[in-house]
Design goal:
The complex is a heterotrimer of chains A (311), B (295) and C (548). By secondary structure, chain B is mainly alpha-helical. Helix content of chain B is 76%, strand content 0%. Chain B has a single domain, classed as MetI-like fold (Orthogonal Bundle), CATH 1.10.3720. The chains are: A mainly alpha (311), B mainly alpha (295), C alpha+beta (548). Chains in contact: A-B, A-C, B-C. At the A-C interface, helix 2, helix 4, helix 6 and helix 11 of A face helix 1, helix 8 and helix 14 of C.
């Protein structure tokens, strides 16, 4: 197992390198530059700006310079926010988005797994239809709709919770967490129901039931393990996607997180910011995909045997 | 006759009866049948739209503006005074087409990719899955902007772009499934009978992993429809006055307090479609469940 | 099992309730008590360095932290003393002498000097700085040459510190709007020692504007700057007119989402909003003591026409398109009466100047013009595409315009939205037929609108080239002796340009805000210019949201 993890970590290096290189050249080939604005930029001003940010050097020199800085942990200055480094912006947004993501995912896992498991226990009954119907609505409901709707009900009509902010007013973290988490909750509910149905029909579960084990023990000790494999496979990319996808929620609720920068950097052609967020995100994705593969393997007795034999 | 021929004969026969059985089981599932019927009605309605739509989809009546449902406009009008029912019918053409075609693209690529990676294993698996990791990590927004610039506006491109993004998770799910199925007796039996890997993957492994595939497909369709709205909003995809359910919903969300009908009716259209898909999907899953069918 | 699940829903509702209860005092209540204004600022500012930033969200904060030599009176927009307690203008209008208020201090207590201005304007104009607004100082003698590296000695530029208190500025030509430029942030002084502590004079990206580092000279000082969360400014102890500053401070919020911003206002989380969603306006208008404030804004929304691309290379086609637009209907319906129909580029009553109105909505004339251009009833029409950058407001206009042209002229029109930078690229490369555009004045003077269309001007983008027009705008108008003579030259030029129709004007902007009844001292004006030092708070006044 340790060898497997080390081997995968080693593979992460070329993956991230390819991502950086591809992003670097893709971004530069997109039309428009970081200094284009609605009012025409005088040619002399544009030249000065490009010189200040070393954009006047040949592209390959810029690329190697970037790699060199990256090696020193320096992601460069932001083009959009003069006076701020990308490191600093990531550092200020990350804790917020991570906290938001953690609450959202906890909410999603709790509600999703619970609903999925209950539904799978009595398929095609009310116990199945009600939570699954809610899950369907959750999937149809994009966050740009759910967020404003929750705000309208809980913030305006009932006046229970703040409209926006993060840590400014008591209770202002509840609505954004639920908004971000509910789409994932719906996915998790569907996936865990399917996974559980698959497992519950298998022989070893029937054996366990035949032995007279109480239903909750069958579920928690035997079925959950295999039944949640699809959920686990989904979770890796979901967690990374959560960070990138928090953009809408962060904008609706005025949350000073990373998601806003991740999306806006592309629109602003803030080259260093795009690369910085991408480096960061690709590391996360590789890492979480690895974790989810490890957990899936650990949950699946047949796969576990494979690891004992090495990578 | 070689052993391989025997095996494929057995397989073919089993396959035919499997589909028959599945069809019979599906017909008994009332929810699935209802879902299927609703879907067929939807598809027929949007296909007939140019002939049955009560108004032209671009004719405006600015002085009328947004009005709630009335006898003249059953579902009300939008801020340009355009008939909402007509908009929803025309929007359905785009949304259903995008939903089905892009999902099919994602499905084909994702399932094949995941199945091959999971079945072959080893270095090939590692390379294929690291490629998936790379695609996950590339900045999506830049990818979209570049697509738009290189290829211009094109509805086919929209399907491709969406399919190209959505297959990744499908591939990961599929691979995990295949890895666990691969070790099972019936696959090992097929291997020992000397069946070609492609045959094993498509005849034995994919049918057995059909449950998660169907579920994930029904999950992908709505996210694809909403993604279409986002891409159209960015300028890739359809252009006004053409519309889609995703776009109608995003416009409606902006004015949910003033003109709630502009959100409710397009939202209902999307929800009904997804519920139907979902019931049909679950029915199919249950009907095709190989293990479930053995008792 | 079922019971457990059923009990889950009320349980989670209970959790929400418990944590929610007692959400307590609103921002407006606490702000009114403590003298802090809660201000929706629209976006996170790019920065706070006066010579680096551009844009509206930056403007509001920078103008609270810094102050120019002369400031605009928020009611009349007339210049009044800022850092300069008085000034003299030479007979011929080309030499300005500013006398700096001896009480004008930096926020570290140091006195401001005339040489601070010389240093700061050197920075603004220096070719290495890359200041996007350098051209705002181009009326100063030799400044353009310095900025273009044609001369390298800043002493040749018409800015001199006669002594610590006296700044003498020499202009190329009498520039009636020059004092207005002194209230634009690009002309503000920065504290030389502070900047040099962090880098060279021309560096754009040193952290000198951070809390604890920044030294400024305005009515407020920077207290907190949390990226994308809020900026807090506090009343300055060293500001010369501190006795007349009523607020203790201001919270600026980067309210990007306009729907959220309006809701924050409704829940009394904000005193003031940067904008108001269009669809909310009719409802706000019907309220008594409405917090909704709308006033004309110095900006024009128009469609650029590429005069080199068929079919719009034909002036008759351009005129036909313009005659076929029912601008009154458009502003009344789609824009909910929040805009004024425009028939020319300069907004009405720009410092007493009114643009010519050469045409009106006339569909039959439009059809005649189209027929004369060779497309009777739209026959043989090769098609036309309108591009706009992705935004809801632009989409609405384009959809309505598209349909008006289709209906009146029976021609095929397509519309296409583009991502912001792609759109900017298309416009500057002139890869379009018709493109949406808006221009907001930097200062109140017709020149700021009319010089857009000089031949090869950076913001022309239409291919419009007219020697006589160029001569009037660049040579004759600046030398005009009286305002009447200058304005009649402008009228002549504008009439010529609008007959050639390289643009299709659509509407004049308005500024739109929601202002809490407890706030006073925010005056509607053409520049949407706000001087926070005049703002006062009056606790106890409630927002009446009616029964809705």
């Amino acid at each position: 197992m340790v060898r497997f993890i080390l081997w995968r970590l080693l593979q992460a290096i070329p993956v991230i390198f390819v991502v950086i290189t591809a992003t670097f050249f893709l971004v530069r080939s997109a039309p428009g530059g970081p200094f284009d604005s609605e009012k025409a930029v005088l040619p002399e001003v544009k030249r000065a700006l490009e010189a200040q940010y070393k954009l006047d050097l040949p592209l390959h020199e810029q690329y190697f310079a970037y790699l060199g800085d990256l090696g020193n942990g320096d992601l460069g200055p932001s083009f959009k926010y003069p006076g701020r480094s990308v490191n600093e912006i990531l550092g200020s947004g990350l804790p917020v988005t991570a906290e938001l993501g953690l609450y959202a995912l906890t909410f999603a896992l709790f509600v999703g797994v619970l609903a999925g498991v209950f539904a799978a226990l009595k398929p095609n009954t009310r116990q199945d239809f009600i939570p699954m119907g809610m899950a369907m609505i959750g999937i149809c409901m994009p966050s740009f709709l759910l967020g404003p709707l929750l705000v309208l009900v809980f913030g305006i009509y009932l006046d229970w919770l703040p409209i926006a902010g993060w840590g400014d007013l008591p209770g202002d973290k509840i609505l954004p967490s639920i908004t971000l988490g509910s789409a994932y909750a719906a996915y998790i509910a569907r996936l865990s129901r399917a996974g559980m149905l698959e497992i519950l029909s298998q022989d070893y579960i029937r054996t366990a039931r035949a032995k007279g084990l109480p239903e909750w023990q069958v579920v928690t000790q035997h079925a959950l393990r295999g039944g949640l494999i699809p959920v686990i496979a989904f979770l890796g990319p979901a967690f990374a996607g959560l960070l990138a996808g928090s953009f809408v929620v962060e904008t609706i609720f005025q949350i000073p997180g990373l998601g806003r920068f991740y999306v806006q950097a592309a629109f602003n052609r803030d080259y260093t910011m795009i690369l910085g967020t991408t480096v960061f995100l690709s590391t996360l994705i590789v890492f979480f995909n690895l974790i989810s593969d490890v957990i899936a393997a650990w949950l699946n007795p047949r796969l576990r045997a494979q690891f004992k034999g090495g990578a | 006759m070689s052993t391989q021929d025997i095996a494929s004969l057995v397989e073919a026969e089993e396959g035919a009866s499997l589909w028959n059985d599945a069809w019979l089981r599906l017909k008994k599932n009332r929810a699935a049948v209802t879902g299927g019927v609703v879907l067929v009605v939807m598809v027929v309605l949007v296909l007939l739209t140019p002939w049955i739509a009560p108004y032209s989809y671009e004719a405006q009546n600015l002085d009328l503006g947004a009005t709630p449902p009335s006898a003249a406009h059953w579902l009300g009008t939008d801020i340009f005074g355009r008939d909402l029912l007509t908009q929803i019918l025309y929007g359905g053409r785009i949304s259903l087409a995008v939903g089905f075609i892009a999902t099919a693209v994602a499905l084909v690529i994702g399932v094949t990719w995941g199945a091959v990676a999971g079945y072959v294993g080893g270095r090939v698996d590692e390379l294929m899955m690291r490629f998936v990791d790379i695609l996950y990590a590339l900045p999506f927004m830049i990818f979209i902007i570049l697509l738009m610039v290189v290829f211009g506006r094109n509805i086919l491109l929209l399907f491709l772009a969406i399919g190209a993004v959505e297959w990744l998770t499908m591939a990961r799910i599929m691979r995990t499934q295949v890895q666990s199925l691969r070790q099972q007796e019936f696959v090992e039996a097929a291997v020992s009978l000397g069946l070609a890997p492609a045959a094993i993957i498509f005849r034995h492994i994919i049918p057995n992993a059909i449950g998660p595939i169907i579920v994930y497909t029904t999950l992908t369709i709505p996210s694809v429809m909403l993604l279409e709205a986002f891409l159209s909003f960015l300028g890739l995809g359809i252009q006004p006055p053409q519309t889609s359910w995703g776009l109608l919903i995003s416009y409606g969300a902006e004015t949910m307090e003033e003109y709630p009908w502009l959100l409710i009716f397009p939202g209902a259209a999307l929800t009904i479609t997804l519920f139907s898909l979902n019931f049909l999907g679950d029915g199919l899953r249950d009907a095709l469940d190989v293990r479930g069918s053995k008792d | 099992m079922m019971r457990l699940f059923q009990s889950l829903i009320p349980a989670s509702a209970l959790v929400v309730l418990l944590t929610a209860c007692g959400s307590g005092e609103s921002n407006v209540e606490s702000g009114n008590r403590e003298g802090y204004l809660h201000y929706g600022n629209g976006a996170e500012p790019q920065g706070l360095d006066p010579q680096v930033v551009t844009g509206v969200p930056e403007n509001h904060i920078v103008r609270a932290l810094f102050e120019g030599l002369a400031v605009k009176n928020p009611k009349t927009l007339e210049p009044e003393p800022g850092v300069a307690e008085r000034w003299e203008i030479s007979e011929d209008g080309t030499v300005y002498t500013f006398y700096i208020n001896p009480e004008a201090k930096w926020s570290n207590g140091e006195a401001m000097t005339a040489s601070d201005y010389v240093w700061s304007w050197n920075r603004a104009l220096h070719p290495d700085t890359g200041s996007l607004y350098a051209y705002m100082l181009y009326p100063i003698k030799n400044s353009e040459a310095y900025s273009k590296r044609e001369i390298t000695d800043f002493n040749e530029v018409g800015v001199k510190a006669l002594d610590d208190q006296t700044l003498q500025v020499t202009l190329n030509a009498p520039t009636p709007y020059f004092l207005q430029l002194m209230d634009h942030y690009s002309s503000f002084a920065v504290h030389p020692e502070t900047l040099l502590k962090y880098g060279k004079m021309t560096d754009r990206f040193t952290p000198w504007t951070r809390v604890g580092s920044i030294v400024s000279n305005g009515p407020f000082t920077l207290e907190e700057w949390s990226l994308n969360r809020r900026i807090i400014i506090k009343k300055s102890e060293h500001y010369w007119d501190r006795d007349n500053v009523a607020l203790n401070g201001v919270y600026f919020y980067p309210t990007e989402n306009v729907v959220s911003e309006e809701r924050m206002f409704r829940a009394e989380q904000l005193h003031y909003t940067a904008v108001v969603p269009l669809d909310k306006i009719p409802d706000y208008r019907t309220r008594e003591n409405s917090p909704y404030v709308q006033s004309p804004y110095l900006g024009t929304y128009y469609y650029l026409v590429n005069t080199d691309r068929p079919p719009v290379d034909n002036v008759l086609v351009r005129q036909a398109l313009s005659y076929a637009l029912d601008r009154d209907k458009l502003t009344r319906t789609v824009l909910q009466d929040t805009a004024i129909a425009a028939y020319s580029i300069t907004p009405p009553d720009t410092l007493g100047y009114n643009p010519p109105k050469l045409f009106s909505y006339d569909p039959s004339k439009a059809r005649d013009l189209l027929a004369a251009a060779g497309y009777p009833n739209g026959e043989g029409w090769p098609g036309l595409e309108i591009i706009y950058n992705t935004q809801e407001a632009h989409r609405k206009i384009a959809v309505a315009v598209q349909q008006m042209w289709k209906k009146e002229l029976n021609i095929d029109i397509t519309i296409a939205n583009q991502e912001w930078k792609v759109y900017l690229n298309s416009v500057s490369q002139r890869e379009f037929q018709v493109a949406r555009r808006g221009w907001i004045g930097d200062y109140v003077d017709p020149n700021n609108f009319l010089d857009l269309f000089i031949t090869d001007g950076g913001n022309n983008n239409t291919g419009y080239a007219n020697d006589i027009y160029d001569e009037i705008i660049l040579e004759r108008a600046p030398k005009a002796k009286t305002r009447e003579a200058r304005y009649s030259l402008f009228t002549e030029a504008e009439t010529m340009m609008m007959n050639d129709m390289p643009i299709i004007p659509i509407y004049t902007y308005t500024s739109k805000h929601l202002i809490h009844p407890s706030v006073e001292g925010i005056y509607p004006n053409l520049m949407d210019s706000l001087n926070l030092k005049y703002v006062t708070l009056h606790p106890g006044r409630r927002l009446d949201m009616g029964s809705n």
